[in-house]
What does this fold into?
Amino acid sequence: MEHDMEQEKNLVQKISLLKDIQPKSNWVLYVKTRILADYERIYADAGVGHESLIGQTLLRQGFGGRVGHLVSYLRYLEKPAFVLSAMTFLVLGGVGYQVSQNSLPGDALYSLRSAIERATMGSDPLASLEIAQRRLEDLKKVVEGNKVRNLSSATQEFNQSVETATKGFLALVENEPKKALQVSRELVQLQRGKTEIEQTLGASLGEEENSELQNATRILVEMEFADLTTRTLSAEQEELFKQAVSAYKEQRYEQALEYVWLIANNAD
Amino acid sequence: MEETNQYFSQLYDQYITRIYRFVYLKVSSVETAEDLSSEVFLRLYKRLREPGREIQNPQAFLYQIARNVVADHYRGRRVTTISIEKTTIEIEDIGDPTQGQAEVNLEMDRIRQALSQLQDDYQNLIIWRYIDELTVPEIAQIIGKSEGNIRVGVSRALEALREKIT
It folds into this structure.
C-alpha cells in the first residue's frame, strides 16, 4: 500500500514536468493584439468626434466651399448701411479674438477660443492631440495661478480633450501604426504633464482618462511588439526588446514604448 | 465595450498558457497548437461581445472550446490519431541544455509519449488534475459529471498512465 502511494507520488511528480511546456511570449502578445485589434477598429469607427458644428460644416465644405461661402456675404457691402456694421463687427471681432486667445476654461470668452480652435485645427488625431496639449497648458496656468474658479472647467475640458485625442490615437494605431509611433511621444508627454499636475494638486484628474491613456499606450506597444517579432534584430536591439517586454509585463507601458523608440532609433 | 476588452484581456492572460499547453499535448505541434489556441480565444472574444450572453464559468468554457477546436481539427484533417511518439519534443525557455536538463527533457518526452497513448478522456483528466492542478469540482464542471465519477476517472487514468510508462 505504502509502496503504491510512493509510486503514485513519483508519477505525479513526473507528470508535473509537463508544466514547463509554455507558449512563446512573443506569440502570446501577438495573438492578443490581433484579437483586440479587431475590436479597436470597430471602436474607432464608432467613436464619433466631439468637434463643433462649425468645425464639421467647414470640414465637409472643403476649401472651395469655404471661399464661396465667404464671397456670398460680400454682396451686402454694396449697400452703405451695411458697411459701418460690417466694420464694427470686424473690429470687435478682432479684439474679441485676441482676448479670447488668452482666455482660460471657465472664462466668458473661452467658448469662442474653443470654437475657433476646433474650426481651424480640424478633428484628425494629430489635431486632437494638439488640442489636448493646449488644454494641458491651460490647466497648468490655472493650477500655477491658483485660479480656483477655473479649475473645474479646465479639468473638464482637459479630460474631454484627452478622451477625444485617445480615440483618435487608437484609430491611428489601427490604421497608421508608423505614424502612431511618431506621435506617441506627444501622448507620453501628455501623460507626464498630467501626472505632474496631479502631483501638484494631490488628486487624480480622472481615473477613466488615466485608464484610456494607458490603454492607448498599451495597444501601441503591443502593435509594435507584433511588428518587431517579424524583424531581424541586432544583439543590441534584442536586448532593448527584452527590456521592453519586461516593462510591458510590469504594466510600465510608457517605459516599454521608450524602449521601442530606442529600437527604432537603432535600426540601420 | 471597453469593459469587455479588459475582461477578455484578463481571461487571456490568466488562461493562455494552460489552454496552449492543453492543446499542444493533444496535437504535439507548436504551430498547430498556436493556431488552435488562437481560435479558442477568438471564439471566447466573439462570445464576450455578444450582448446578453454571459459566461458563467470562463475556465470551463475555455476548456470546452479547446476540446471542440481540437476535435474539429482532427475531423477537418480526417486524422484519427497523431502519434506524439514520432515528434520531437520542443521545449522552450528551460535554460541551458546541461546534463541534468537533458535528463529532465528525456523524462518529459517519455511522459508525454505515454500520455498520448491514453484514451482522450484519460488524457484530459491527467492534464487538468496534475498539470493544470484543477480541483475535482472544477473538472466536474468542465465535463458535466459527478465528482465521484471524476475521482474514479482520475484514479483509472493515473493507473493507465503508469502501465504505459512501465
Remarks:
- Confidence is low (pLDDT under 50) at residues 78-95 of chain B.
